[in-house]
Amino acid sequence: MYRYALYYVPPPDTALGAFGARWLGGDATVPPDLVGVSVEDWRSAVAAPRRYGFHATLKAPFRLAARYDERALADALEPFCRTRAPVPVGKLALRVLSDFLVLAPMETSAATKFAADCVRAFDAFRAPLTEEEIERRRPDRLTESEKANLDRWGYPWVMEDFRFHLTLTGPLDEAGRAGFGAAIARMALPAMAEPVEIGDVCLCGQPAADADFRILRRVSLGGADRV
Length: 227
Prior knowledge:
alpha+beta, Cyclic Phosphodiesterase, Chain: A, 9 strands, globular, 3-stranded antiparallel β-sheet, 7 helices
């Protein structure tokens, strides 16, 4: 396995999970019903999010440290989840994060604390960043806090710089955000009407550098392994 990550992935039997599957598309050749957006533009906009799947990051993708294997990582996830209660997130709204369209809540303190716990608890499993990985984050464009996070935790947007969100598109210009925003708002209305709760954590893996992430295990908070 090339990389691992801890994600919140909406269960498929929820309105949010159904929307995510429909928006990103289970098959890139079969787009969702679109109004005002071309199929070609949709494929371009969702190319990057499709690689990672519809999710909110709890611990960003990392290579596994040499002294650990996938079994050790998976075995550590269950007791971590068993001792924690579900995390309220609240209703989501369509927002712009940098140049990306995302679904995000107004209040993120509970999710921020939980994500920070995930980062701390599983940091020992993370291999140190290579120089190439560091440069990929463009440290010259990061704030001092983000640079410190990259150095300490291997990812800039953690702790106080974390923002719970589910990514919908790659970077878009203003016109693209307006067009896609209107299409998404129509499709996501049922999903945005339901309060979200982090009820489980998904251990996800990327088999190769050019492969999509997939769910390896879904573990309930306060409960047992569900996959």
